[in-house]
Amino acid sequence: MEALGIDIKLLIVQIVNFGILFFVLKKFLYKPILKLLDERKKEVERQKELLARTEEEFKKGEEKREKILKETKDRAEKERLELIGVANEEKKKILFDARKAAEAEVEKSIQRIKSHEEESLKNIKKKFLDEAVNVMIKKLENTPKKGGRLLERILD
After folding, report:
1. pLDDT tens column, 13-58
2. Residue 146 has pLDDT above 60, yes or no
3. Domain boundaries along the sequence of the chain
4. What DSSP state is assigned to residue 7?
5. What is the rounded distance in angstroms from the CA atom of residue 77 to the CA atom of residue 100?
6. Is the dihedral of CA 86, 87, 90, 92 positive or negative?
7. What does the alpha-carbon distance between residue 135 and residue 22 come to, in Å, rounded to a whole number?
8. Per-residue 3-state assignment (H helix, E strand, C coil) for 16-28
9. Which of 16, 88, 102, 151 is disulfide-compatible with 140, CB 3.0–4.6 A?
């Protein structure tokens, strides 16, 4: 091998040096690096699982939120319809009460009008009778003596 320019002692020393270097690197460098890479791989897997669970919980939360939102909207719509019904009933009651009050006022007004009419009619009759009596008295006073006696008799 010396003809090729290879020194056997140097080759053996190089092989031994390589073996020692390989052993040292494997023992002190490769194992910690492999261990670190393995730990990182496990951490990445753990993070993936955590992400998957978080996404699943997020989806469940979204579904729950949508369900609650729908229930709230349905309940609000139901309450709105109930309030409209109550308002309509209240409106009918108010209109009924107003109509009753208006009818009562109309009835009172009619009674007052009738009362005033009767009173006016009485006053007219009284004035008419007073005028008729006054006219008769004047005619009887203007008549000759028979009328004066007749007037005295009537007044007595």
Report:
1. 999 999 999 888 888 888 888 889 999 999 999 999 999 999 999 9
2. no
3. 2-155
4. -
5. 34
6. negative
7. 160
8. HHHHHHHHHHHHH
9. 151
Cα 2 to Cα 15, 36, 101, 117, 127: the distances in Å are: 17, 45, 136, 158, 172
- 3 state SS for 75-126: HHHHHHHHHHHHHHHHHHHHHHHHHHHHHHHHHHHHHHHHHHHHHHHHHHHH
Condensed to tens digits (0 to 9), the pLDDT of residues 12-25 reads 999 999 999 988 88
- The pTM of this model reads 0.43
Q: In angstroms, what CA-CA distances link 70 with 65, 77, 84? A: 8, 10, 21
Which residue from 121, 118, 117 is spatially nearest to 129, judged by alpha carbons? 121
Tokens (6 digits) for 54: 């978080």
- CA–CA separation, 23 vs 93, rounded Å? 101
CA distance 34 to 26: 10
Polymer length in residues for the chain:
156
CA-to-CA dists, residue 15 to 8, 10, 25, angstroms: 10, 9, 15
